[in-house]
Amino acid sequence: MAQHQSDVSVFFILIKRSLSIALIWTVLCFFAAYWNISTEQQKTMELAQREARAVIDKDQALSLWATDHNGVYVPVTKDTPPNEYLSHLPERDITTPSGRQLTMMSPAHIFRQVVNRQGELTKAHITSLKLVNHLNRPDEWEREALLRFDSGDKEVMAVTKMDGKEYLRLMKPVYAQAGCLDCHGQQGYKEGDVRGGVSVALPLTTYRAIEKKSLQAIYLTHTFLWLFGLLAIVLIFTRSKKRRIERLDDLQTLEEQSEKIKIFAYSVAHDLKTPVISIHGLANLLKKRQFERLDDKGKQYCDQIIRASSQLSSLVDQINFFISAKEQPLAIEPIDFPEICQLVKEEYEAQLQAKKVQWVPPSRIEGIRADRLAITRIMRNLVDNALKYSGDNLSRITIACREESDHYSISVANDGNPISPDACRNIFIRFKRHCVDKKVHGTGLGLAIVKELVGLHGGDVWVESDGKEGVTFYFTIAKTMPSETKSRLHGSGGFGRKSPT
Q1: Which residues contact 274 (CB under 8 A, 6 or more apart)?
Q2: Phi, psi of 227 (to 5 degrees)
Q3: Per CATH, the architecture of 328-501 is what?
Q4: The whole model's pTM is what?
Q5: 71, 117, 364, 369: which could form a disulfide with 104 (CB 3.0–4.6 Å)?
Q6: pLDDT tens figures, 276-329
Q7: What topology does CATH give the domain 72-83+101-203?
Q8: What is the pairing mode between strands 407-414 and 396-403?
Q9: Which of 449, 345, 354, 433 is nearest to 389 (CA)?
């Protein structure tokens, strides 16, 4: 059941992450497509605007050329009869020496004939708000543009519909030149005034067709990239799901094996401790009742049996405690650290007095939250370690505690025998003993238990020694417990309150 719930949980986590990545990928593809489409549309309009400006510049150049020549004489034909709007000019019509009849064409007339020969692709027009010829009257858009020229605008551009088709319309002002005043001076214009404007209407059909092909390529490319990305996300999701499930299966197998090992260790410890207790009790009873009958060798063997059985019993207790340290929940609560140190001192009072060791307690500090029994066990192990391994040079044990930004730092220092740098690095390894004196008994688990308990409190533990004199053990207690420890705070009992046997 637990495995099924775990699999479902992993599946939903992966689904959530995959959907989030897919959403982000979709948004990125959308904005990339939007940017490329906008860029392509902008390029289309830039090309159209460039051509419209080229056309209108050509038309204005033609108009200026005609104006600079005060018009042009052409033969009188059916298509070019004398201009009735130039009848006030004395030399509108002339006859050549050979008898040919010529009439003057105004710049506007020239412009109109040239435009008519351009066909329907591009519509050009010269117009004004003050008309001489009604053929040059402006449409509504041109009228608005002419009004804007009076306000100072130098160019007016817009995309509009004409005859159901889309056109880019551009209009620029025409300024009165000296050559214009012969015809338009009677309208009140002065040289430099805005006399009207030249407009061009460029059909966008061809540009839109080219743009459509480019946009289709953009749509296809971005759709392919989007689908390819989604396919990659699906493949990654499938592989991740498979790996997660395999990992969960491995973890479950590991937990099952770990549980079997733990049960086996408890069983072995129980099976060992029962005969050890009997051996220890019988040896003590033999020593008590039959001591006088034993010879020196017998007394020596009896003492060795008592010491060995006591050491083995202690090792079994340490193993049980080490295993329970990984399983039992902590009871995190405010603790009085100096009071704990005082209790530990009282436990070792006899040894402290026998070795004439000065005890320097820590100053009072408030706010420490930890498992009281676990901290007591840590201090007991460190003090016991100092009394055991510091030798005859030991004269002082100093305990200190200070508050840091995110943790409390505690040190236990002694002035006894030093330890080597190599020993400092390896001293917390299980069953690793650095004392070569066979008279000093130990299990090799005391400092490993200290490291385990400190880790449960989100702290670190280390040792410092200069190799000449004294050893100082440091450990920290986090102000905020790690998440793994918090998940174990559900038990009603605290650390070490229930040890399996």
Answers
A1: none
A2: -65, -40
A3: 2-Layer Sandwich (3.30)
A4: 0.45
A5: 71
A6: 667 767 777 777 777 677 787 877 778 777 777 766 666 666 566 556 555 566
A7: Beta-Lactamase (3.30.450)
A8: antiparallel
A9: 433
